[in-house]
């Protein structure tokens, strides 16, 4: 996670200070849109994964928490 934050800091420093919040919000919106598109396309597979592999539920929760942490970091700037 620290590597992602460092990459984000390097990327955001390219832009002027006044535009940085707009870029952060745009990146957060794009991330949410991308996740929704992936879930919408593979929703049946996710349902089958949860039904067939109960051990996958904690893994999916971990992935979801990671995505939320990235979004919080992007919007917290």
- Structural class by SSE content: mainly alpha
Write down the domain tally.
1
Distance between the termini: 16 Å
Mean pLDDT: 83
Shape: elongated
Q: Which stretches are poorly predicted, pLDDT < 50 over at least 5 residues?
A: none
Residue share in helix: over 70%
Number of helical stretches of at least 4 residues: 4
Q: Profile the largest sheet.
A: none
Topology as a string of helices (H) and strands (E): HHHH
Give the C-alpha Rg: 15 Å
Strand proportion = under 5%
Number of strands: 0
Model description:
The protein is an all-alpha fold and 77 residues long. It has one domain (2-76). Helix content is 83%, strand content 0%. The chain has 4 helices and no strands. Helix 2 (20-41) packs antiparallel against helix 4. The chain is elongated, with a radius of gyration of 15 Å. The two termini are 16 Å apart.
Q: Topology of this structure?
A:
Blueprint: H1 2-12, H2 20-41, H3 43-52, H4 56-76
Helix pairs in contact: 2-4
Task: Give me a quick take on this structure.
83% of the residues lie in helices and 0% in strands. It is mostly helical.
Keywords:
77 residues
